[in-house]
């Protein structure tokens, strides 16, 4: 079969996702990431639909792309305008992309009830729009909107819509499952019939995920002649999203051995996927196939022991192939193998038979019985292990702290912390104000340490979670605090447990600072 063409619509479809709002700068960063992974066509947006998209196309011209071709997106002309006077088509030409994608109706129901025009008039809109654009740009892709629903309702008319675009010179006919309700069997049958009728045309597939079948439908289409694959990285898009390009790329290469028209940098897949989530300000989905933090996580003791001997026993591919890593989780389901492998992940070698290792295992089990959780708190785990092995040094000593939260009656809460610590033999007594008790402790601790350890300026708190461990105790319940911190190159998690939320937060905060100093200390060595 021919090599596959990747066409990503994240820059346009992404903002249609609930919770995503991209700035022009966000879209430029996303475009560079998609180009870096090897996407051939990037749909930039709909010129003229809003000022942001218009500005984006202007700014995008300064990017030096390695693989990608920027594509403008719009709709066929409106009935009341000739093609050469249609504002939408003219706006598409204004941004001066070499490729334009336009969509048109292919479902008779939509033509008659949404556009409220005749079926014949719709065919003229498609033909005129594609022909007008094709005479002025290098390539025109035609998105046959609602094609599968249209085909099931009136196959003859759906074919006529494709023929109108083909006769006008469309370079690719993209079959869209716009409502996302088709099945792989339906897609396979319909694409096969289209392939038989349009033997000389390139076919594409664009699936929505409303039935959780977008990737399956995409592979069905490829198996029956489609070569251009449209979707969005991380599966973003309106409603339930589009074909998840992240998973599609990995499966296409690793399972089906498909080739692409561009070079795909598969080892960057995980980092690119996570950066996209970060730019879109969306929660990282730990269970995402291939690239999620839990995609290669092992918790049960039997699984961990097996993976230690042969990873393929519980892993369908090697995590290194897509730039991910294996993760050994700590729980009461895991035994000594889990601890040893987890330590090895942190480049710490433990001997199962030594007293130190047994002490570590017992210590972890004891802490977990108190409510500690070392999943996602690898920094606290590493500190615990290194303390047991006497490979940890105290960077500072806490003498004591006090936190005051005051409501002055005007609705504003003022938090103040006083902290006493000893650093390199010097006693520091620091007072700080902040937005809340945890924030003010963080400020005070950094203030006390920063002149001794200037690189603490790089550390930022990126997540703070509190979990009540025994709700029946009410406000006296024990709580678990999980912190996620980062510097210029790394991100790490720490944990603290106490029946006092300030104390639990302090434990996690100290581990976070400790880990940064420990890491920098090792780097210098």
What does this structure look like?
It is a single chain. Helices cover about 40% and strands about 20% of the residues. The protein has 4 domains: about 5-280, TIM Barrel (Alpha-Beta Barrel); about 295-355, Irregular (H-NS DNA Binding Protein); about 370-390 and about 460-525, Double Stranded RNA Binding Domain; about 395-450, Double Stranded RNA Binding Domain (2-Layer Sandwich). The strands form 4 sheets. Strands 1-2-3-4-5-6-7-8 form an 8-stranded parallel β-barrel, surrounded by 8 helices. It is elongated. It has helices at about 10-15, 25-35, 50-60, 85-95, 110-115, 120-135, 145-155, 155-165, 185-195, 215-225, 245-255, 270-280, 300-310, 335-345, 355-370, 380-390, 435-450, 500-525, and strands at about 5-10, 40-45, 70-75, 100-105, 140-145, 170-175, 205, 230, 295-300, 325-330, 395-405, 415-425, 425-435, 460-470, 480-485, 490-500. The model has no long low-confidence stretch (mean pLDDT about 90).
In short:
The chain is α/β, with parallel strands linked by helices and 525 residues long. Helices cover 39% and strands 20% of the residues.
């Amino acid at each position: 079969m021919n090599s596959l063409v990747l066409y990503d619509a994240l820059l346009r479809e992404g903002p249609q996702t609930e919770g995503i709002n991209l700035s022009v700068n966000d879209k430029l960063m996303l475009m560079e990431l998609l180009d870096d992974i090897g996407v051939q066509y990037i749909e930039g947006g709909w010129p003229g639909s809003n000022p942001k998209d218009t500005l984006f196309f202007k700014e995008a011209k300064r990017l030096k792309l390695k693989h990608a071709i920027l594509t403008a997106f719009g709709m066929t002309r409106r009935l009341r305008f000739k093609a050469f006077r249609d504002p939408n088509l003219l706006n598409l030409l204004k941004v001066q992309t070499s490729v334009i994608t336009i969509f048109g109706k292919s479902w008779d129901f939509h033509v008659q009830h949404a556009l409220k025009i005749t079926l014949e008039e719709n065919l003229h809109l498609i033909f005129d729009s594609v022909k007008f654009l094709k005479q002025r740009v290098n390539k025109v892709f035609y998105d046959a909107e609602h094609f599968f629903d249209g085909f099931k309702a009136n196959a003859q008319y759906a074919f006529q819509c494709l023929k109108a675009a083909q006769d006008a010179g469309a370079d690719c006919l993209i079959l869209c499952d716009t409502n996302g309700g088709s099945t792989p069997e339906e897609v396979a049958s319909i694409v096969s019939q289209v392939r038989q009728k349009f033997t000389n045309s390139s076919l594409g597939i664009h699936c929505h995920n409303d039935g959780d079948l977008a990737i399956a439908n995409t592979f069905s289409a490829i198996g029956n002649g489609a070569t251009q694959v449209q979707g969005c990285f991380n599966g973003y898009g309106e409603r339930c999203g589009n074909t998840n390009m992240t998973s599609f790329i990995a499966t296409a290469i690793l399972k089906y051995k498909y080739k692409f028209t561009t070079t795909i940098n598969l080892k960057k897949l995980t980092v690119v996927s996570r950066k996209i989530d970060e730019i879109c300000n969306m929660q990282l989905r730990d269970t995402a196939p291939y690239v999620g933090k839990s995609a290669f996580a092992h918790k049960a003791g039997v699984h961990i022991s097996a993976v230690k001997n042969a990873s393929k026993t519980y892993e369908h591919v090697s995590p290194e192939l897509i730039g991910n890593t294996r993760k050994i989780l700590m729980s009461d389901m895991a035994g000594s193998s889990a601890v040893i492998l987890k330590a090895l992940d942190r480049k710490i070698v433990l001997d199962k038979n030594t007293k130190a290792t047994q002490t570590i295992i017992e210590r972890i089990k004891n802490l977990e019985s108190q409510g500690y959780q070392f999943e996602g708190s690898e920094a606290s785990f590493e500190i615990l292990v290194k303390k047991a092995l006497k490979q940890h040094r105290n960077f500072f000593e806490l003498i004591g702290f006090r936190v005051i939260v005051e409501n002055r009656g005007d609705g504003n809460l003022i938090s103040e912390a006083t902290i006493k610590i000893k650093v390199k033999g010097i006693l520091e007594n620091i007072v700080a104000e902040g937005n809340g008790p945890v924030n003010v402790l963080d400020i005070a601790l950094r203030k006390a340490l920063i002149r001794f350890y200037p690189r603490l300026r790089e550390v930022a708190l990126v997540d703070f979670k509190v979990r009540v461990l025994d709700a029946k105790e009410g406000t006296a319940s024990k709580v678990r605090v999980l912190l996620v911190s980062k510097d210029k190159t790394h991100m790490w998690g720490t944990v603290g447990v106490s029946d006092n939320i300030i104390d639990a937060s302090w434990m996690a905060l100290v581990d976070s600072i400790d880990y940064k100093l420990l890491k920098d200390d090792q780097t210098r060595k």
